Amino acid sequence: MKRIGVIGGMSWYSTAEYYRVINERVQERLGGHHSADLLVHSLDFDEIRQCQIDGDWERAGKIMAASAAGLVGAGAELVVLATNLMHKAAGAIEDAVPAPFLHIADAVGHEATRLGARRIGLLGTRPVLEDGFYAERLARQGVDVVVPGAPARARLEEIIFGELTVGEVRPESQATLRATADSLAANGADAVALACTELELALTEAEVPLIATARTHARAAADLALTGP
Length: 229
Description:
alpha/beta; four-stranded parallel sheet; 53% helix; Asp_race; isomerase; Asp/Glu/hydantoin_racemase
């Protein structure tokens, strides 16, 4: 079993899910009392959130790279970033450490392919939906994307940062998320990826299959730690 290093805290609510799911998957695979060989560096999200607001992706990348280097220095043989949005700075991590880095969109693309979904809807923050880095990574696997219109993207931003990342799940917001996912299905999505790790804490069903990105990513990390090169 390889030691997994998780860069977390963005937010800690979804990072807790990573810890749980990785361990569940290892126990599922190995049985008995087995659990994951796992390190977590939980960052202060307030500092990262300010980088997002300021558009300071260079600083964000340096923070991510330093975290990855610290995990590898502590023995991590595989690095996972427990957030969708901060994969905008994934290149900084890949450049900083020799250990394999499992990109969340690669895990999502693999799951979409397993589901037979060649076109998926994305729900997430503005950078994930608008900046291209996520869709471009999915395109490498032959997966096309469809995103909500501008008003819905703005509402998603409000729900994610005004509620979910501070631990709130409001029923009216859950209804909005369901309606937005269903509208993506109506626009041709074969599945919908919850491309913000907190979204799967609020949305569990829609008219098409939902890809819970945190769970998908965490399970893929456990599998790679057990069977990967």
